[in-house]
Structure formats: structure tokens, C-alpha cells
Amino acid sequence: MWKDWLAFTRKEQYGILVLTILIFILLIVRLSVGIWDEPPQRVEKAEINDLIEFEEVKEPAKSQQDTRQYHFSGNFNPNKVNVTALDEMGFSSYAVVNWIKYLEAGGHFSSLSDVGKVYGIDSIALVQMAPFVHFSISREEPASKSSPSHSRNFRYNQAKQDISHADKPGTDVNHEVVKVEINSATPEDFRQIRGIGEVYSSRIVAYRNLLGGFYSVNQIREVYGISEELFDDLCENFEIEGEPFRKIKINEASLRVLKAHPYISFYQARDIIEYRNNNGAFEEPETLEQLASFDGNELKRILPYFSF
Fold first, then answer.
1. CATH dotted code for 248-307
2. Transmembrane ranges (predicted)?
3. Which of 279, 276, 277, 269 is nearest to 302 (CA)?
4. What is the pTM of this model?
5. Nearest alpha carbon to residue 165 among 241, 75, 229, 226
């Protein structure tokens, strides 16, 4: 062995020696790391439970909910409250957290029944808060010289009737009629009409854009949430000029474009594409009558949105 060692040149011997020393040093450093590190601290089970309880908001027991007292010093808008205000009113931490999370996620309360859907809000809370709840989009209350308590009872009775859409107009027949051209009006223009608030104005404009414009005032009936009764109250405020501002080129539109229109189903869009592929372009509106997926009423409704 030593004879073999002596067979290396002087530089090779130094190189092997240095490499051996480096390996030895690395081994010592690696073994020393475990000694120098502090041992992991042991966390008792009780401490873990304390940490979990600190982060988790638990729903109060039923008996606690039944005896909870709420304090309402005046009217409040459930869409414009904060944690402090809700806590001062007496709501549980569980209800407050869910309430605020709903608002931060973009939720909006339009009726008392909507508030009742918040986890942690029970029927007792709804009954006690009803006289004080005031929505930003609400039907106007008739003027009265009665006492504040009478005004609160009025709102309470309306809340019990569960007005599902707070934009519903009042019964005062003397209000001014505001004329709005429905194909060019902005949400702000629609809100000039008594009975239309932020919710309905946004829905009308969104539906109009989805259609490509209105060709009849009666199409407002199709907006989600607008009942026949509400439309009858509002229709005198609507007027229309011209045709829809965006039409579909029936001989060029893709399947995706066609079926995106509210009046065209997937099967109708497919039939249009197949007809074009087999027979060429549509020359006139009457050609659509050959498609089995369109009946007379559907064809009459969609034709104003086609260009040939």
C-alpha cells in the first residue's frame, strides 16, 4: 500500500491529502448541525385547542340565541354596516362574521328575508330588527304626520309581507311620469323612474346589452324580477326609438355567437349552421321557416335581431 502511495507524484499526493481533509471537515459540520439546533418545542394538546378556538368562530348554542337581547338605537341599512355596529346591536360573533363576509363577497340585501338567510340570524332577531331596517333601494313610504312609532310599524308590516324586490314602486298616483328611451338610457336614467333602483336599472341595461337592444317596450317584462304588476306600474315611463343597435349577421355568425343570444337555443343555432353548410346562405327571413326548431312565435321574436 505504501509502495503504491509512493508511486504518486508529489502533487498527486498533496491533492489526495487535501481532498481527504475536506471530506472530513464536511462530515464534522454535518454532524454538528443537529447538536447546535434547538430541539423542537413540544406543544401541548390544550395549547393547540386554544389556538383553534381563537381562529374559529363557533355558532352559539340554541339556548343562548333564544335569550339574546338586541339593541337598535335607530334605522340602519343592512348593506352599509360594519363589525362594530353589528356587535353593538347584539348580534353573535358567528352572525357578524357571516354577515360581513357576505357583503365583502359582493352580496346585497334587498329584503328582510335576505337578511334572514345569513347563518346565525334567527327569527327573533328578524322580528326585533324589522322596524329599524331601511334598505337603500326601497319603495317610498307615504308622507305622514304620525309619530315615529307609527312609521316604524309601517315598515314592520311591509317587512312581514316579504317584499322580495325593494324597487317596487309606491301607490301614490300623483307622482311625476319620467319618460326614458330604453335603448339609449343609462342605469342612472332608469333610476329617475320612481320604483326603479340600482338593482332593476342594472338588470335592464345588462339584458338590453345581451339582446343587442330592444325593439319593443314589452321586452322589459323579460327582465328578471320584474313582475306583470310592476311592469304595468312602470310601462308609462318607457318609450323606444329605432331598432336594436346590434344585429347578428346570420350568414356569417358562428355557433358560439348564435347560441349566446337569449332568444336562440343551442339546437336552433346548430340548425342555422347546418342549413348554411348544406344549402348556402339565407337569402330572406322566410327561409328560416324551413327549420323545424323554430316555431312561428319564436321566429317572430328573433327576426328583428338578424341581418341578411
1. 1.10.150.280
2. 14-36
3. 269
4. 0.45
5. 226
